[in-house]
Amino acid sequence: MTDLFALLYVSTATPLVDVAQIDALLDRAQIQNSRAALTGVLLFDGGCFMQYVEGPAAAIGRLYPRIRSSALHSGIVELLREPILRREFPEWSMAFRSANAFGMSHPAPHLDLLEPAPDAVAEPPSVARAILTKFWHRGRASHAF
């Protein structure tokens, strides 16, 4: 039995959320997540957040109340909370990807964030990765311009 859990949710950004607030959130999340052995990704597109966090069950349990009480978003809908066998984003304490009006990713180093690993091509994507990818590509062509 594994102690790894995953949490995936979507929420609506508050109307006045700005880049500086998101940057500050990411800085805190990356530090705190590293200490708690949490990894994951935060996507921001069209005023909506989607976040996937994975790690020890107890750490997820401590993190989720802080997520729910954040003033940066509202209308949280939990899509998935389940035990997992392996991490989807083991190298990211909290990766971030945001779309601009032209559907391009920011920051550029994360362009391939949702692409399957080369050694995982034969394996179908997890439910969480499929949902994250669908959220990211909604309303856009599936290829970069």
Strand element count: 6
What CATH architecture label applies? 2-Layer Sandwich
> Helix/strand-derived class?
alpha+beta
Biggest sheet character = 6 strands, mixed
Structure description:
The chain is an alpha+beta fold and 145 residues long. It has helices at 19-36, 57-69, 127-137, and strands spanning 4-13, 39-45, 48-56, 73-83, 95-99, 105-106. The protein has one domain (4-137): Alpha-Beta Plaits, CATH 3.30.70. Helix content is 29%, strand content 30%. Strand 5 and strand 6 form a beta hairpin. The termini are far apart.
Descriptive labels:
145 residues, alpha+beta, Alpha-Beta Plaits, six-stranded mixed sheet, 3 helices, 6 strands, 29% helix, disordered C terminus
TL;DR?
The chain is an alpha+beta fold and 145 residues long.
Please specify the SSE layout and strand pairing.
Blueprint: E1 4-13, H1 19-36, E2 39-45, E3 48-56, H2 57-69, E4 73-83, E5 95-99, E6 105-106, H3 127-137
Parallel strand pairs: 2-5
Antiparallel strand pairs: 1-3, 1-4, 2-3, 5-6
